[in-house]
Specification:
- The protein has 186 residues and is mainly α.
- It has eight helices and five strands.
- The chain is 47% helix and 11% strand.
- A hairpin with a 2-residue loop joins strand 2 and strand 3.
- It is rod-shaped, with a radius of gyration of 31 Å.
Length: 186
């Protein structure tokens, strides 16, 4: 069969079809290797498309349009990423830059202490607590809660003692043993 006959009756795949194929190729690559190490540009997909369709400038343009329409982010090495959108990747990069000088604190050894109060007081009291140098030594973090302020501390006794200067604190006791078994509610 003459090549002119074959090319005149053959249509290139649609852009949408090319997009779906490219997504499948990149998804398969991600599933097998955890990331893409083969596809950086539209021409990298041409081997696959040319195995199904005769090579032509129209096919090349269609694949280029599909890659452009997908708007895939690229990793630091320039490879396409299928598992994230451009916005997600940009947000991840921004977060990475912002966290470079940060550290992680494990709150596993902390005891949460709830200071119950009306919600309209919470922000101002939190500000005052964060401003008090003496109090800052007694907690790891302060978190707003629905019914007050949740304070994570490694020294709950010292924190409760500090607050006892301002709040009347009554220790909880166990009715069975008549002994104090828990930190008092603040």
């Amino acid at each position: 069969m003459p090549s002119s006959y074959f090319s005149s009756t053959h249509k290139n795949p649609s852009r949408k079809s090319c997009e779906q194929t490219i997504k499948r190729i990149l998804t398969r690559e991600f599933e097998e290797y955890g990331e893409n190490h083969h596809f950086k540009q539209a021409s990298d997909f041409m081997i696959y498309f040319e195995s199904l369709h005769p090579s032509s400038p129209g096919l090349t343009r269609q694949v280029q349009r599909a890659v452009s329409a997908l708007n895939l982010p690229r990793d630091e090495n320039g490879y396409f990423m299928i598992n994230k959108t451009v916005e997600e990747y940009k947000a991840e990069q921004e977060l990475s830059k912002l966290l470079q000088s940060s550290s992680v604190a494990n709150l596993e050894k902390c005891t949460p202490v709830l200071v119950k109060m009306e919600s309209w007081k919470r922000d101002h009291v939190t500000y005052l607590m964060q401003s008090a140098a003496e109090l800052r030594k007694l907690y790891e973090t302060i978190v707003p809660a629905d019914n007050g302020i949740l304070i994570y501390t490694k020294t709950p006794e010292k924190l409760v003692s500090f607050f006892s200067n301002f709040i009347k604190i009554e220790p909880k006791s166990d009715p069975v043993t008549n002994g104090v078994t828990d930190l008092p509610e603040i």
